[in-house]
């Protein structure tokens, strides 16, 4: 039950940048520009589309496959078998890591809550047997690196203005 709730938190993490963008005028103390929050959301959507596209490619290695006995772990869990489907990397973890790391880099979320959110999503996807440990770690690394690259790309124009 707790793992199901933690897995559903991906929707909250995914919607967080849109909420910050839309409520920007009424939330004091936000550190990034309003456009940055919208950009974080758009890039998280793009990452999901890229992830879906790569999962349609041929399987090159058994590490890409979900664990034996994997069941449907999506939001509307139909309970069907996911044996033999590609699970590399975990999309839930990738989205969570990207959004929380992006908000960490903007200064709106401190390190401990961001890390706790990412680790709890990793644990929920692993313990629900939706992904292997490697697939969960790969999602966290890709999400964190993508957030860092976006942060660096947004930071460069700021430095050039000075």
UniProtKB/TrEMBL annotation:
InterPro entries: PAP2/HPO (IPR000326), PAP2/HPO_sf (IPR036938). Residues 38-154 form the Phosphatidic acid phosphatase type 2/haloperoxidase domain. Gene3D superfamilies: Phosphatidic acid phosphatase type 2/haloperoxidase (1.20.144.10). The chain crosses the membrane at residues 6-24, 36-54, 97-121, 133-154. The keyword Transmembrane applies. Pfam families: PAP2. Keywords: Membrane, Transmembrane, Transmembrane helix. This is Phosphatidic acid phosphatase type 2/haloperoxidase domain-containing protein.
């Amino acid at each position: 039950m707790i793992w199901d709730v933690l897995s559903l938190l991906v929707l909250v993490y995914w919607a967080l940048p849109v909420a910050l963008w839309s409520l920007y005028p009424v939330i004091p103390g936000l550190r990034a520009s309003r456009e940055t929050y919208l950009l974080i959301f758009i890039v998280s959507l793009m990452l999901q589309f890229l992830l879906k596209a790569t999962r349609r490619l041929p399987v090159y290695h058994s590490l890409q496959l979900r664990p034996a006995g994997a069941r449907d772990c999506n939001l509307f869990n139909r309970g069907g078998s996911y044996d033999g489907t590609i699970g590399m990397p975990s999309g839930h973890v990738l989205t969570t890591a990207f959004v929380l790391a992006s908000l960490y880099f903007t200064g709106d979320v401190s390190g401990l809550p961001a890390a706790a959110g990412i680790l709890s999503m990793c644990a929920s996807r692993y313990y629900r047997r939706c992904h292997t440990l490697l697939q969960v770690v790969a999602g966290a690394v890709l999400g964190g690196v993508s957030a860092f690259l976006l942060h660096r790309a947004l930071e460069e124009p700021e430095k050039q203005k000075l």
